[in-house]
Amino acid sequence: MILVTGGTGFVGGHLVDRLVHEKIQSRCLVRKDSNIEKLKKEKALIDVAFGDLTDEESLKKALEGVETVVHLIGIIVEKKGATFEIIHTQGTRKLVNACKMAGVRRFIYISALGAREKARSRYHITKWEAEQAVIQSGMEYVIFRPSIMIGKGGEFITMLSKIVKEAPVVPVIDGKSKVQPIYVENTIDCIIKSVTEPRINNRIFEIGGPDQITYTKLFLTLMDVLAIKKRVIEIPLLFMYPAAYILERLLEKPPITIQQLIMLQEDNICDIKEMQEVFGIELVPLEEALKSFLLHGGGKNL
Question: Which domains does the chain have, with CATH numbers?
Fold first, then answer.
């Protein structure tokens, strides 16, 4: 039995679809207020366990009979009671401890590219702290550090598409920073292989797509896919800090935060040679991936 945390989220939704397609029995840890209609339709292959990372008793029940855990839960915007430290660091530690008590053998964690001990952003520091909890657990583990993931249901491209469609001109914050978007289905390819092939053990993989591009180029590619022509204006990061500071205090889910601006100051790219050698997957180029879910509905078959 496999336990998936975050099964109703963006990546989790794609993973659950693939697990069902592969006829792999799984259980999803979900909060009571989560929309589980999709999971209920696949009840022959998917169990639902209500609970969360802060409820140790619910974790104990969810882990009964589980051999492998795929931990997807993470946040990019903080709110009261759900900080990076609470969700990434403390939440992962509690889950790891519960796994050890339950005799879970294997733990697969989705971290983030840039996670490291002395990172500038608290997001990356807490992701690294979560990694350490997994590494030191004594369980077999595989950790993935993806660049930005794109695909159907992903908030990142949804937000950028809205800007491109609605803004009179397209603003790009510090457009010279580089990113390496990975199609979410390619991330799922890696996760599935790490679940089904136990030879892949105790490894950390940085993963990304085949294209390393600037944020300006990302916007231009998105505009080409959507057949939209507008002027693009690059905005220096320095000018955005006051706006982010105000938005964080006015909105529960601000469009930009101080932590995100800090992360934008460094490239989000990696060497994907090791990923390709181990997992042997065919990476979907950025433009093809964008077309697959923006123009054609988005699915595994491209």
Answer: 2-149+182-209+268-283 (3.40.50.720)
Kindly indicate the confidence band of residue 300, based on its pLDDT and cuts at 50, 70 and 90: low
126-158 burial code (b ≥16 CB/10 A, e <16): bbbbbbebbbebebbbbbbbbbbbbbbebebbe
Residue 147 in contact with residue 207, Cβ under 8 Å? yes
Q: For every residue of 255-280, which 3-state class applies, written as one string?
A: CCCHHHHHHCCCCECCCCHHHHHHHC
Measured CA distances, 142 to 203, 220, 225, 226 (Å) = 5, 35, 35, 37
Which residue's entry shows tokens 């931990």?
A: 71
Quote the CA–CA distance of 244 and 239 in Å, as a whole number.
10
Spell out the long-range contacts of 24-29 with Cβ–Cβ below 8 A and sequence spacing 24 or more. 24/195, 24/196, 25/1, 26/1, 26/2, 27/1, 27/2, 27/3, 27/62, 27/66, 28/3, 28/4, 29/3, 29/4, 29/5, 29/58, 29/59, 29/62
Tokens 């590619």 -> residue: 221
Is the pTM higher than 0.85? The answer reads yes
**Burial grade of 249 (CB within 10 A; 0-12, 13-18, 19 or more):** exposed
pLDDT single digits (tens) 109-126: 999 999 999 999 999 999
Q: Which amino acid is at 54?
A: T
In DSSP notation, 185-199 reads HHHHHHHHHHHH-TT
Contact (CB, 8 A) for 172 and 233: yes
Segment 1-24 shows an average pLDDT of 94
**pLDDT tens, residue by residue, 250-295:** 888 888 899 999 998 899 999 999 999 999 999 999 999 999 999 8
